[in-house]
Specification:
Blueprint lengths: L1 E6 L6 H16 L2 E6 L4 H8 L5 E2 L10 H11 L4 E4 L2 H10 L7 E5 L11 H19 L3 E4 L2 H7 L8 E3 L23 E6 L8 H10 L6 E6 L5 H10 L6 E5 L4 H5 L4 E4 L8 H9 L3 E4 L2 H6 L7 E3 L4 H13 L1 H18 L2 H17 L2
Parallel strand pairs: 1-2, 1-4, 2-3, 4-5, 5-6, 6-7, 8-9, 8-11, 9-10, 11-12, 12-13
């Protein structure tokens, strides 16, 4: 079997971590594959670091109608048997490429549309793009993988009749010993962190309100690691609430694992989540997690066992969780140990890779 993984590769987040993980697993298992991207950026750079040279199919302008034809030529030249597409642009172009080169397709649904509703410009665009992905994915008869059971249930009606499967994300185990503590993480301060895209869906305004609700004497610092369109608004909120000195906006960090391995607690006050890689990495590192009871967070975290779950929008619950972990170090250590065991048992790269291998074979057999 010759596989092609196709994605945009414009930004770098959970989708791109998933792709790098699959590339690592495919290499390790000796499978033939080609990585096709539409941008030569961070994902392409990191792919090269692990020995995978991507084929970069850059568009000639915003609307390049020649992309599907060129993509079909690349797939034919590589003798591809099945394509794994991520994101609407990859799915649409792969579906159109099938007019010239026939192949079965698998697509992964990583999360919900990040928008505030159809009536806003960003909401209309996000929902329209997702509609395009679903429409062309159905036309291509694509098999569908969902990274959580919550997503599978949400899309069951739209994807009925297609081969579908829930495949949780997975990682190889991590060890704190492999990562150096950054100099700006003062060990004398209780370090709380939120990591990922700085967007509305991450609920970071509640993280800042929680920081404002903690007594300054507790010596707690909130580190927001990542970039996104809400950074300016959130900085203004921190200043308005008088916690500009206790909320640090660190931006994108290439050495993000150094930070993740040496914080005291990871918080995810999200409005919704698929199955973020950050939570699996924190579990593997034994870092306690506080998350909202939504999406994949509720499927992975058992409250008070391997982390804490709070209701959506519950700032006071977030405050109490941080206080409890700060005042009871043994509680966080016990949660961290349990989280590490669960990740090693249920959310491994081998489990994810083997599950996708089965779905690829199923897609080929029904083609």
């Amino acid at each position: 079997m010759k596989l092609a993984i196709c994605s945009v590769g414009e930004l770098f987040g959970g989708v791109e971590r998933h792709i790098l993980g699959m590339c690592t697993w495919l290499q390790r298992e000796g499978h033939e594959f080609v990585l096709i991207l539409f941008h030569d950026r961070e994902l392409a750079r990191q792919a090269r670091e692990i020995g995978v040279e991507p084929v970069v199919l850059e568009a000639r302008g915003r609307f390049d109608l020649g992309v599907p034809g060129r993509l079909a030529g690349i797939l034919a030249n590589h003798g591809v048997d099945v394509v794994h597409a991520h994101g609407y642009k990859a799915v649409v172009n792969c579906a159109l490429a099938r007019r010239k080169y026939k192949f079965p397709m698998v697509r992964t649904v990583h999360g919900l549309v990040e928008s505030s509703g159809w009536w806003t410009p960003s909401g209309f665009k996000g929902n329209f793009y997702f509609w395009l992905e679903r429409f062309y994915g159905r036309r291509a008869g694509s098999a569908v993988a969902y990274v959580t059971e919550d997503l599978r249930l949400r899309h069951a009606r739209n994807d009925r009749g297609l081969a579908t499967r829930t495949i949780y994300n997975g990682i190889d185990p991590l060890s704190r010993r492999d990562f150096t503590r950054p100099a700006d993480l003062d060990p004398g301060v209780f370090q709380v962190a939120a990591m990922g895209r700085v967007t509305r869906v991450k609920g970071l305004e509640n993280a800042i309100r929680a920081a404002a609700g903690l007594e300054p004497g507790l010596k707690v610092v909130l580190n927001i690691i990542g970039t996104g369109p809400l950074a300016g608004e959130l900085k203004a909120l921190a200043t308005e609430l008088g916690v500009g000195d206790r909320v640090r906006f660190l931006g994108f960090k290439k050495n993000v694992y150094d930070y993740l391995a040496h914080i005291d607690v990871l918080i995810m006050p999200s409005v919704h989540e698929g199955l973020p890689y950050t939570i699996l990495e924190a579990m593997s590192l034994g870092i306690p997690i506080i998350g909202t009871r939504v999406g994949g967070l509720a499927e992975v975290i058992d409250d008070r066992e391997n982390g804490m779950l709070i209701p959506l929008g519950d700032v006071e619950g977030l405050i109490q969780g941080i206080r409890a972990l700060k005042s009871e170090p043994g509680l966080g250590e016990a949660m961290g140990r349990a989280a590490r065991r669960i990740q090693a048992d249920s959310f491994t790269l081998d489990t994810m890779g083997n599950s996708y291998q089965g779905l690829y074979n199923e897609a080929i057999s029904h083609f």
